[in-house]
Amino acid sequence: MTSPPRPTPLPVEVFRALAAGSGGASAARLLRAGQSARRLLLLRGLLDAALADPSSPAAPAARAAWTLLADVQRTAPAVFDRVVQYPSVGPAARRHLRTAATTGSPTPAATLLITLATTTALLTHRPAHFPLPTLPALTLPSLTHLPLTQPHPSPPPRTSGQPGRTGGGEGWGEMEVRVGAGVGEVRAGKVLVGRVLGEVEEGVRRVLVGGEGGVGFWVDEGDPDRMPGADLREGRLSAAEVREWEALLGEAWGILRRRHWTAAEEIRVLLRVVTPLNAPDGRATSGTPRHAPGLIGLSPPADAYALAETLVHEAQHTKLNAILDHLPLTAPDDGTRYQAPWRDDPRPLLALLHGTYAHLAVAGFWRRETGTPHAAEHFARWRTATHASALTLVTSPSLTPHGHTFVTEMTATLTRWLADPLP
């Protein structure tokens, strides 16, 4: 695989435009490119962790996986990006790297590289064969999460090394994954313990709306790393529920394309995966994980306008997370808490910044919805609350110089909006 590129610095004019609430497709592509570069650095970290013990059976398996991934990156870059840049790979890689650091075992890092390589092999119809440690499940990003039923494994073989340690060879070879001409099997010894892989009907489904110039989302209900700590809905959406989501998404996309084209361009570039959430007490909820760029969690939306507003809101969080990868906007948390107009609990500075930036987009959404029932009320509420929050932020001594510039640009936009006449 080619050496991971260094993230491109964010141009000053793009930074200021994003802070003021603008941006569009070109800015979104710069942000996504930075996220992609960081993902490749994370992937290289996995390889280094997997090769930390050259005597471990994890090492040759990791090298073989890396070689296959490098070939896919060269010959099928769209497939490589689909798998390696899939949002849940970020939290999974971080989790496996933490485990490798605390246990000294290369197994977690090697296993993730193998699952990524296996997924690309399935999607490109090329043969592959990897040993695996004993696993309860196999996650193939953007395809499926596959629980495995296994026979009782034999005792793990010991490798040369310190007495009483497995040297990272725990269970290696007791399972394997084979990929032929588009068909994959997971085996333990000679016993089939999985099923045919890559059947979209049993895995991650794709929802497309809007025709040419439309938008598409993966609906992921199984990947264990898709949104750590969230109140995830259990089980799969029924076919009828998927059709309901698809219909609402189509209506919401129509709203965005007609009157919010800048936001629509950003959403098309930045958001790729939706995972269903529970709605606590019947209240709609949504969220954006910090280290899974491109994924948002959603409970069932009330209507198309609510979904359109939510997509704008969560895309704004995604943008700010990407900006923070380029530039620190706040100093480390010193324990100071700030009151947000839309919450009862005081918030850390970075959380208040996130909320203010997201609600800047919400205010802008309703500002453009002139003529829609209750749009003026929503605009009046959010421009006032967000302006008050921005004034709180701008007085904080914990903003970095870049953070102060960012908040100043936000405040200037909101100040102009306060002068807009209301019915």
General description of the model:
The termini are far apart. The chain has 423 residues and is an alpha+beta fold. Residues 151-168 and 189-201 have low confidence and may be disordered. 49% of the residues lie in helices and 11% in strands. It has 2 domains: 37-148 and 171-201, no CATH class; 202-418, no CATH class. A hairpin with a 4-residue loop joins β4 and β5. It contains 12 helices and 11 strands. It is globular, with a radius of gyration of 23 Å. It has helices at residues 12-19, 24-50, 58-75, 77-84, 89-103, 107-124, 239-259, 261-270, 304-326, 349-368, 375-394, 401-418, and strands spanning 128-132, 137-140, 144-147, 175-179, 184-188, 191-192, 205-209, 215-219, 273-276, 286-287, 295-298.
